């Protein structure tokens, strides 16, 4: 701020999964290489505190594999975006989301570009690329491919390649995520860098890293892949969980941990969405709704049970706790990305 240095931040969403992290790193690298003359410093920001990075096990794995040190990364708690914006020095490119959370509403006017792959919730006031592809990394790869030749290096290609494969469930049509554009980007990356690893090798390594929650506490599990929704009265947490629901619900002290997690953060309730894949890459999904407020829990359950766009085909499962409602989700292709708008509309 004192040097009046303009800063162009590229930032993913607050869950900071592999797609958000790699999209921010790769696009910021591309912008820094191709902006002439660069009057701004291009900075990729991982949208979590540094202390949460260890929970993003697939991201720590892939960056480590590619020789990128954690010390080289910048996290959300290490840069004062509001201060830069107030000083008139901030430009912001959003990747892997296009609606800032209410806590960041003041940064809205700094947003100059958006790349996202989820359904459009509201039209950004800047230029934007919002396309329903399997991975935001696909849109970043396309953007880089349109730029000058020679900018894409092997490390960036490997990051994008692994991310698209993980997000598209190894390009498997059965998982319902892959599109022809994801396939085209994988082909493009492999044509430029034939030494990239075989699909199964990198996909299975990333999947194993992502689902390795063996060392995590319940609180860390809930934080690992966390989104929030809010209205004027309450905040609802939606956590992606990487073990099956029965195992999760029978963790020791689960109820105390759920209550402590929600109380510490001011959440009125929590939706836990679990996913696992069989050997044919077909997903199985279950979900649980927790709240000590019975009216809120009933409302969330009713909204999810009655949803039609998409219908979740929920089947009640036994729950060991009266304040937790558990379900098998018959529509296994309805990922959290599809469930969030249902809950947002209800709040």
From TrEMBL:
Protein name in the entry: PRUN1 Exopolyphosphatase
Any coiled-coil regions, as ranges: none
GO MF annotation: an example: exopolyphosphatase activity
Cleavable signal peptide: none
Residue span(s) of domain DHHA2: 203-347
Record InterPro entries: DHH_sf, DHHA2, DHHA2_dom_sf
Family: Belongs to the PPase class C family. Prune subfamily.
């Amino acid at each position: 701020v004192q040097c009046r240095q303009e800063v162009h931040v590229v930032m993913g969403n607050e869950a900071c999964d592999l797609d958000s992290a790699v999209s921010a790193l790769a696009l910021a690298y591309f912008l820094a290489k191709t902006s002439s003359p660069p009057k701004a410093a291009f900075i990729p920001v991982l949208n979590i505190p540094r202390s949460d990075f260890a929970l993003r096990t697939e991201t720590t794995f892939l960056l480590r594999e590619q020789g990128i040190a954690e010390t080289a990364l910048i996290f959300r708690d290490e840069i004062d975006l509001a201060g830069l914006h107030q000083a008139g020095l901030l430009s912001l490119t959003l990747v892997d989301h296009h609606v800032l959370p209410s806590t960041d509403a003041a940064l809205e006017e700094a947003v100059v570009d958006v790349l996202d792959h989820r359904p459009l919730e509201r039209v950004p006031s800047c230029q934007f690329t919002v396309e329903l592809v399997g991975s935001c990394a696909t849109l970043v790869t396309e953007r880089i491919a349109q730029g000058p030749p020679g900018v894409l290096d092997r490390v960036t290609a490997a990051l994008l390649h692994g991310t698209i494969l993980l997000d598209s469930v190894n390009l498997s049509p059965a998982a319902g995520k892959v599109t022809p554009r994801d396939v085209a980007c994988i082909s493009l990356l492999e044509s430029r860098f034939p030494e990239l690893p075989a699909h199964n090798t990198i996909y299975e390594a990333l999947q194993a890293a992502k689902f390795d929650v063996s060392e995590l506490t319940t609180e860390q599990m809930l934080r690992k892949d966390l989104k929030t929704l809010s209205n004027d009265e309450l905040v609802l947490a939606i956590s992606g969980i990487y073990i099956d629901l029965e195992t999760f619900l029978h963790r020791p002290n689960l109820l105390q941990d759920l209550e402590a997690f929600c109380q510490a953060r001011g959440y009125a309730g929590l939706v836990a969405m679990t996913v696992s894949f069989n050997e044919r890459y077909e997903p199985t999904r279950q979900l649980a709704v927790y709240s000590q407020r019975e009216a809120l829990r009933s409302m969330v359950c009713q909204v999810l049970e009655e949803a039609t766009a998409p219908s979740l085909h929920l089947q009640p499962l036994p729950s060991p706790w009266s304040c937790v409602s558990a379900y098998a989700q018959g529509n296994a292709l309805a990922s959290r990305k599809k469930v969030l708008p249902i809950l947002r509309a209800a709040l």
